[in-house]
Here is the input.
Amino acid sequence: MVRLNLNNIKTKVLDQQHKILDVDFGSEWLSYLQEQAKTKQGEDKSDLLAGECSFQPEWLDQKEWVKHLCDEYIKIFKPELADSQAGYGLDIFATWLVYQKGDNFNPIHNHSGDISGVFYLDCPEDVVNKDWIHGDSRQAGLDILCNDGEIFHVRPIPGKGVLFPSLTNHCAYPYKSKLDVTRLSASFNAKIIYGLFS
Here is the structure.
């Protein structure tokens, strides 16, 4: 396997107040993750999804890049923890894939843990809309619903995604497409273990 550089995964703050981090994997990482989605599937956990999907397997052996993103998240949004002598650990206790057809949706829900992530690995091109502006159709996208009423909409662009606090409500919209392509997203939940070295 070709060793990919974790530093090639680009992150930027989408919103400081609500602790939302934008992620761009780039084309090499996207190809790698798409291959991982085909070859590292575990048990189907579709019955655990809040909404509807055609298939939701565990995503095995993904902890290295997930840990990298969580470390970046902590550096930005919890710098006092990143700089602490006591240190911290991460329990990445869930990674999974969600295959959703056009009429599938995921209603408003939240996750357990401290940090969650949602990333897109595939989506019908006719609903991606990279130039989406507020007021356009939200089909196939993700809404992050903050406690103060602020809503952040994330388009389902393959290779892109977000990290956010696990208890933040979010939902995924159904879509209409002329293409026979299933929307494929990936998610994780991680818990911060405080004072690991104290």
